[in-house]
From TrEMBL:
InterPro entries found in the cross-reference section: TLC-dom (IPR006634), TLCD (IPR050846)
PANTHER family recorded: CT120 PROTEIN, TLC DOMAIN-CONTAINING PROTEIN 3A
Principal location class: membrane
Protein's name according to its UniProt entry: TLC domain containing 3A
SMART domains listed in its UniProt record: TLC
Key word Chaperone present: no
A GO CC term assigned to this protein in UniProt: plasma membrane
Native organism: Terrapene triunguis (Three-toed box turtle)
Membrane-traversing stretches: 76-96, 121-141, 147-169, 181-205
Length: 259
């Protein structure tokens, strides 16, 4: 636990700093803001890939969805904890650099307040994972449900595509075929891994216990239902936003999208 926490606490900030420095060497014409934005998205993709691979390994190694154990289901949570703390700070850093021209030139309570107002849903999501889901995953569930923890890890599959979309827009490549294909991949992976994932988990439990799927919420601990509901609610909101962007992307001309 402590070793994993220590390594992850150094790894993500270190990778971010290395990326910012490397981009400074490779693209000296880029501003610090551009390098920070791109680096944050690259690190996000790295973490998402690690989580997805870990989740797939856990799911494949848990044939009994309730009782089977696999060490990554516990250990990778201790990677997520420092990443979430790091990501909140980097989100603030990105917000400050993007709004520096219109806000204040220095970090202040006003800039923090502006960040919390603009990104309150994402910050709340991260804090919920830290304060609620971590104790549930590591302590309250006992030695049951590694399979479902692995499923939650797999939800990160859509993140690299979301990050790639933002990178392409940052590079002014939003009118390319790559951006359109990536948009389809975002829709598909987000829908499957962040929306359909939850009915899939309830279905897996129903098959395991031999009960109808609609009875599953009454057979599992209440904190599991609350955690799942709290997780899927923002995903539905974000998926709605992604669908709106997709409509604009595929139904408008390049000149319309650039307005």
């Amino acid at each position: 636990m402590w070793q994993t926490l220590a390594i992850a606490s150094v790894f993500f900030p270190g990778l971010f700093a290395l990326s910012v420095r490397s981009l400074g060497w490779a693209a000296p014409a880029w501003s610090l803001k551009d390098r920070i934005l791109l680096s944050s998205r690259m690190v996000s993709s790295v973490q998402a890939t690690m989580a997805t691979v870990s989740g797939i390994i856990v799911v494949l190694n848990c044939k009994d969805v309730v009782h089977d154990r696999y060490w990554l289901a516990v250990e990778y949570v201790w990677v997520i904890v420092p990443y979430m703390i790091y990501d909140i700070y980097v989100m603030y850093l990105c917000h400050w650099h993007k709004s520096k021209d219109t806000l204040e030139k220095k970090h202040s309570l006003a800039s923090v307040r502006s960040f919390l107002e603009k990104d309150r849903l994402m910050v709340t999501h991260h804090l919920f994972i830290l304060v609620v889901l971590t104790p549930v995953a590591q302590y309250l569930r006992g030695e049951l449900g590694d399979f479902f923890v692995g499923c939650i890890f797999v939800a990160e599959l859509s993140t690299p595509f979301v990050s790639l979309g933002k990178i392409l827009m940052q590079l002014k490549m939003q009118d390319t075929l790559l951006h359109k294909v990536n948009g389809i991949l975002i829709l598909v992976t987000f829908f499957l891994c962040r929306i359909v994932l939850f009915p899939f988990m309830y279905s897996a439990y129903a098959r395991h216990t031999g009960i109808p799927i609609y009875m599953v919420p009454f057979h599992i601990p209440m904190h599991c239902n609350v955690a799942n509901a709290s997780l899927i609610a923002p995903q539905l909101y974000w998926f709605m936003l992604i669908c709106r962007k997709a409509v604009r992307l595929y139904s408008s001309s390049p000149s319309d999208r650039n307005r």
